[in-house]
Amino acid sequence: MANLALLYAKAGLTGFLHGGGELPSSTRSAEVVVDPAHLAAYNEVCGFRVGGTVPITYPHVLGFGLQLELMTERAFPFALPGLVHVGNRITRSRPVTAAEPLSLHVHTENLRPHERGQQFDVVTTAAVAGETVWTDTSTYLKRGTGSGSGTASEPPPPTAVWRVPGDIGRRYAKVSGDRNPIHLHPLAARAFGFPRAIAHGMWTKARCLAAFEGRLPDACAVDVRFRAPVLLPATVDFSSTPDGTRFALHDPRTGKPHLTGTVQPA
């Protein structure tokens, strides 16, 4: 697997070389066996219980190094610093057990216009014995000129209040490998326009799904939009509909959504 610290250093030093254009056709693949200690650490940080299956979001961190390799190669059209993770959709055909070896494959696709620039997808699949059982599509935004601004739907009424500690960015970075400076320290975050460090979008998704643990369909698709960053430390309102098909995180003072999501049978 990739040395993530070196890839982040590469991204910072060579970002000026990326001048736009089409997405490359290159891919990355790896065979992965789940490390029980790593899985336990991930469960603790994200709020999942320990069990025989992996959380639906866990294979994302196993494939993150492959994703980073693709997005830092010379042929990739955009510099990694400044890309915004705006959405993530995970589809699984069944739960994955911690004992199953996974074949991971990553590619990029679907470069398209966005109202604030351009967006594209990074697609990661996990297969067991040749059968694809899990697919993750992360959508990234490259800011540029656009034709307007999006509107966010109102979240349902809050059902729980969570206090997010100031060190959650560093703790999640340790288990995920995502050491983007905006998540680690206020001074680094300010260099990118944030007043404080911000929580990882995939941590907020995982934390929400931990609240659904035991209630997600075995075969399902969970789609989230990352609306506004969670500035650390924070207090956030979690909300979900009684049938569990919609959920959200929002600012309890302003009502501004941080994340909105849906759960659908697959």
Provide a descriptive summary of the structure in words:
With 266 residues, this protein is α+β, with helices and mostly antiparallel strands. It has one domain: Hotdog Thioesterase (Thiol Ester Dehydrase, Chain A, Roll). The protein contains six helices and ten strands, in the order αβααβββββαααββββ. It has a ten-stranded antiparallel beta sheet with strand order 1-3-4-5-2-7-10-9-8-6, with helices on one face. Strand 9 and strand 10 form a beta hairpin. Helix 1 packs parallel to helix 3 and helix 2 packs antiparallel against helix 4. It is globular and about 45 Å long. About 3% of the residues have low confidence.
What's this model, at a glance?
The protein has 266 residues and is α+β, with helices and mostly antiparallel strands.
How far apart the termini lie comes to 30 Å
Residue ranges: pLDDT <50 for 5 or more in a row? 146-152
Please write the string of helix (H) and strand (E) elements.
Answer: HEHHEEEEEHHHEEEE
Write down the overall mean pLDDT: 90
Instruction: Identify the CATH class.
Output: Alpha Beta
What is the radius of gyration computed over CA atoms, rounded to a whole number of angstroms? 18 Å
Question: What topology, given as strand order, has the largest sheet?
Answer: 1-3-4-5-2-7-10-9-8-6
- Helix percentage range: 10-25%
Structural class: alpha+beta
- Report the principal-axis shape: globular
**Major sheet attributes:** 10 strands, antiparallel
CATH superfamily: Hotdog Thioesterase
CATH topology: Thiol Ester Dehydrase, Chain A
Whole-number tally of structural domains: 1
The portion of residues forming beta strands comes to 25-35%
Number of strands: 10
CATH architecture: Roll
